[in-house]
Amino acid sequence: MENAKQDENELNKLIEEYKPFIASTVQEKVGRYMRYGDDDELSVGLMAFHEAIKAYDKNKGKFLSFAKQVIQLRLIDYHRKHNKHKTVVYLSGEDEGQEKNNPELGSNKAILQHKIIEENELRKIEIEEYKRELEKWGIAFPDLVKSSPKQQKLRNLYKDIALLIVKEKEIFCALSTSKRLPIIEIQKNIDIHRKKLERGRIYIIALVIALSGDFEFIQGYLIGR
């Protein structure tokens, strides 16, 4: 596994070897037979498996269990994005009497409850991944909570700065290389005092990590996406 993280050829061999596992995981989640080259969900599964290899920590349990969870998470993301305009109505508990006459209604509610539990588990995985990314920058999760601005106006300003950094390749590279906010470059684009930038360093960097990575739940929490 560690060799695959460092060697692209080893990584590709591992992905090829586990294609049946990836397909089985995707088919179980989607609920139908799928073929490589014909179904986008299998491509999502392959990319998720690649991501799982890179992010795997042997102290976090068995790899295949971790990989399965990552694949499921990315499939949920994929279907959420592609079905965001579709509305599915689930009836609340007050309609329990109707379930006796309509077994399908009860089945729908069970599916919804299962999805809620599943998404909560996948959210935990994403938070752990995000924590590991923060640690690479010397940021502990409690530090992020403490540094979060209380004023909406200031949060919006820091959000604009993070979006600028992610958008502008040179500024992003400068931040990634030095692990410091490129203050002068930021000030050329956004009117902000140096001290205010320095006070927002942790929050801004945390936003950049969330925006530049595949952290949909975190993005929703931090910036409401």
Please give a handful of descriptors for the protein shown.
14 helices, 225 residues, mainly alpha, elongated
* Coarse shape: elongated
Q: Total helix count? A: 14
Give the biggest sheet: none
Radius of gyration using CA atoms only: 21 Å
Distance between the termini: 34 Å
Whole-number average pLDDT? Answer: 78
Question: What structural class is derived from the secondary structure elements?
Answer: mainly alpha
Q: Note the beta-strand portion.
A: under 5%
User: Percent helix among the residues?
Assistant: over 70%
Regions with pLDDT < 50 over 5+ consecutive residues? 84-109
- Taken in chain order, the helices and strands follow as HHHHHHHHHHHHHH
Count of strand segments: 0
Describe this structure in words.
- With 225 residues, this protein is an all-alpha fold.
- Helix content is 75%, strand content 0%.
- The protein contains 14 helices and no strands.
- Helix 5 packs across helix 7 (103-136).
- Residues 84-109 have low confidence and may be disordered.
Short description:
75% of the residues lie in helices and 0% in strands.
